């Protein structure tokens, strides 16, 4: 027999208090369309904590002992939907135009580094997609522009002297653990074609595991985009389907931070339904073949 407990009453002022706290902590903003989702998640947490009022719950969250519960609440509020090869036209633009341009530009300067940041990486499908696209792009680049020395055998995924770093971050620890494991079900793999599966994954029972060599290119870390201490010196930042959960003021602050986190002439990809329009004058938009990317504007003398 299931015991259905009555919901804990939530007043408008308690809701406001909790909304403000969440916004201050991680930038997530719940407008009218998403308040029911917030109410449901708050009810779940307050019951789990066995607290009888939302004011009591708020006091817990703002106390020193409540840090763990605050983390758990934020994890419960994030939407972690993601997939391999999400928004293909953007990934094509990244691989065929942006990457090509950066490889050429960096090589001319004898700078053999490439640094990409997937901000809000969820369970890892986005950074692993970027990693394999980069490996393929580098292989193809050197097919057309051979290296002045012999490639070591077996061929490494990243031809020396290139050094590729892909940083992938999220606010959700559980998502980061899944990402770090890099093991995916058949249905999570449905966008990955068989050549990619053969090259970059190992099948074990009914799951696919990202091969170690590809996995080693991605470094997962916890970063809250609300804070000021974010990874610097990136050539490209992917922050897709994260800003939709922030209000305009927070989006503006985040775009400013991304501007600082990018190398000169660096690129920023945002989600298909997101835009920098009206939020900044520090980037210019490049739109090609149904995909958009924003490039940092530099003051040239
Ligand atoms: C919908 S997923 C997007 C995943 C991936 N970028 C994609 O487009 O497929 C949004 C992710 O942003 C993360 N997120 C939300 N607020 C965040 C914050 N303040 N700092 C870092 N990550 C955040 C969530 O935990 C979630 O994993």
Outline of this structure?
Helices cover 41% and strands 19% of the residues. The chain contains 10 helices and 10 strands.
Task: Please provide a written account of the structure.
The strands form two sheets. A seven-stranded mixed sheet has the order 6-2-1-7-8-10-9. Strands 3-5-4 form a three-stranded antiparallel sheet. The relative contact order is 0.13. The chain is an alpha/beta fold. Strand 9 (283-288) and strand 10 form a beta hairpin. The chain has ten helices and ten strands. The chain has helices at 12-26, 35-48, 54-61, 67-77, 88-108, 125-144, 173-181, 194-200, 212-215, 248-261, and strands at residues 113-119, 163-170, 183-185, 201-204, 207-210, 218-222, 234-239, 262-270, 283-288, 291-296. Residues 26-28, 78-82, 86, 120-122, 126, 170-172, 175, 223-226, 240-242, 245, 271 line the site of S-adenosylmethionine (SAM).
Rg from C-alpha positions?
22 Å
How would the global form be characterised?
Answer: globular
Q: Biggest sheet, open or closed, and with what strands and sense?
A: 7 strands, mixed
Order of helices and strands: HHHHHEHEHEHEEHEEHEEE
- Taking all residues together, what is the mean pLDDT? 95
Q: What is the count of helical runs?
A: 10
Proportion of residues in extended strands: 15-25%
Could you give the count of β-strands? 10
**Level of helix content?**
40-55%
């Amino acid at each position: 027999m299931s015991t259905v407990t009555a919901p804990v009453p939530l007043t408008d002022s308690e809701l406001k208090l909790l909304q403000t706290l969440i916004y201050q902590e991680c930038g997530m903003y719940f407008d009218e369309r998403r308040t029911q989702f917030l109410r449901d998640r708050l009810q779940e947490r307050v019951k789990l904590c066995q607290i009888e009022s939302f004011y009591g719950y708020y006091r817990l969250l703002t106390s020193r002992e409540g840090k763990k519960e605050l983390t758990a609440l934020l994890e419960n509020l994030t939407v972690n939907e993601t997939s391999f090869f999400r928004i293909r036209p953007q990934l094509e633009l990244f691989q065929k135009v942006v990457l090509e341009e950066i490889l050429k530009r960096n090589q001319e300067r004898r700078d053999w580094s490439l640094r990409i940041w997937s901000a809000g990486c969820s369970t890892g499908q986005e950074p692993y997609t970027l990693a394999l696209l980069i490996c393929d792009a580098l292989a193809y680049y050197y097919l057309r522009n051979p290296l002045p020395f012999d490639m070591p055998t077996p061929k490494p995924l990243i031809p020396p002297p290139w050094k590729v770093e892909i940083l992938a971050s999220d606010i959700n620890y559980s998502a980061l653990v899944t990402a770090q494991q890099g093991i995916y079900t058949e249905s999570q793999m449905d966008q990955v074609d068989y050549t990619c599966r053969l090259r970059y994954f190992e099948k074990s029972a009914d799951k696919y595991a990202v091969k170690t060599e590809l996995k080693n290119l991605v470094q997962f870390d916890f970063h809250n985009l609300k804070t000021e201490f974010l990874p610097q010196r990136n050539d490209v930042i992917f922050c897709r389907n994260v800003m939709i959960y922030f209000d305009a003021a927070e989006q503006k602050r985040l775009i400013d931070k991304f501007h600082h986190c990018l190398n000169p002439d660096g690129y920023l990809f945002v989600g298909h339904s997101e835009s920098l329009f009206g939020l900044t004058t520090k980037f210019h938009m490049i739109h090609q073949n149904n995909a958009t990317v924003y490039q940092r504007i530099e003051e040239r003398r």
